[in-house]
């Protein structure tokens, strides 16, 4: 049967001019600056990942970490854990980790473009939208394995589309390669890849009616590599993650408008409203036409966003990851033809405006944290070797406040003490099924496999002997179990002058030595 060809819309093919391509190339370079120009990118989870990379690189050497051990298994979340140590053989751990992040960003952007070219045979909107979401919540918060895997998934979907009418062995070979890559990189990205191809094949079966045996054969080819991968994982003792599924349905609509910008809720909401309004206006003027399974994918991914919990197998923001993945996948299947030159200019102005605001915000936050991270690294010189370091946050609630997302890149930054001071920090990510790093015996009761700093109001209650039901188990005897306390977040006075001795401070953190109180005679 003939290959699928894009069903293009008559009218102005917006986004295909040489000027648009040149503008995109310029924006592409600008978008990478927050990572290219900063020693440590200002992303919430990035310092935690960088600390883990140091442990992996030092494992098996005389400089192996005193508090952590490497325990490999077939976990479907190992992209940077496998790649960065290899790069670090020829460069520093810091540069190797940053190169991995850059590769993740480049894969994401080029993957969206590749998918659009595979479906529509034209460069139009996907590249610009990929730049627009490059610093959305999942990516700006340092979900690096997920971003790397999403980039691979986009290339894999593009490859399947290109080969969808070719011989089965060729399609199966390429598909098996991408399943293997995605299985090792990030499980949820593999799920999005399989979901997208599954919906596309359902559309194809209904549209072309190839017969039941052919349809079953195509779906079997889709499922078989994943079944084999999961079977191998189970046989070798690997796992997906820990328990931890939470449904926050009442927050879904709110978070939908808080996803676009990972550093500012206000900019995120304003950008989302602008894009949604533009989309509605263009749709009412017939500016959109689905190519192949475009409408099926848009509806199915919207349903997936509604159906999925916020946290699944201890993986956070699952539904928001679907939102960002949808903005990278669906535009590749939608032809945009503004009805007039005026609407073409309005469309370009809105998309470019939101993109530039997001990029400017990301670069500003990165520049601010350049000095904050430098001050933090300097403060590690105050720590005695092999110290136990607790992290608290200055907010009033159990979790860090959400009012200013630009404060978030400091909340995991203290885990860098693991790398640069050989310290024990309980909030280093050591979740079984996610990271190949565990805490040595004797300290596991103090570890938080996947969590963040504790509110100072809780730590103060414990220190003063008041019960607090929200206190995590590892903090119950924090004044005796830890040597130092970092308080991260907005600057605040010494919360316990009789117990904490100030050693260093900056705008977003303070370091204290915990005074050992002598027992009363």
Draw up the topology in text.
Layout: H1 18-36, H2 46-58, E1 68-70, H3 79-87, H4 93-120, H5 126-132, H6 137-140, H7 144-162, H8 168-185, H9 187-208, H10 212-235, H11 252-256, H12 265-284, E2 288-290, H13 294-307, H14 318-329, E3 334-336, H15 341-379, E4 389-393, H16 416-420, E5 437-439, E6 454-455, H17 456-463, H18 478-481, E7 484-488, E8 500-505, E9 509-514
Parallel strand pairs: 4-6, 4-7
Antiparallel strand pairs: 1-5, 2-3, 7-9, 8-9
Helix pairs in contact: 1-4, 1-15, 2-3, 3-4, 4-5, 4-7, 5-15, 7-8, 7-9, 8-10, 9-10, 9-13, 12-15, 13-14
Any overview of this molecule?
This protein is 52% helix and 7% strand. The protein has 18 helices and nine strands. The strands form three sheets. The chain has a five-stranded mixed beta sheet with strand order 6-4-7-9-8. It has a two-stranded antiparallel ribbon with strand order 1-5. A two-stranded antiparallel ribbon has the order 2-3. Helix 7 runs antiparallel to helix 8. The longest helix is centred in the C-terminal third of the chain and has 39 residues. The radius of gyration is 24 Å and the shape is globular.
Keywords:
521 residues; alpha/beta; 5-stranded mixed sheet; two-stranded antiparallel sheet; 18 helices
Mean pLDDT: 88
Distance between the termini: 91 Å
Broad shape: globular
Element order, helices and strands? HHEHHHHHHHHHHEHHEHEHEEHHEEE
Strand order of the largest sheet: 6-4-7-9-8
Low-pLDDT windows of residues: 1-12
Number of distinct beta strands: 9
The largest β sheet comes out as:
5 strands, mixed
Helix segment tally: 18
Secondary structure: helix percent: 40-55%
Estimate the strand proportion.
5-15%
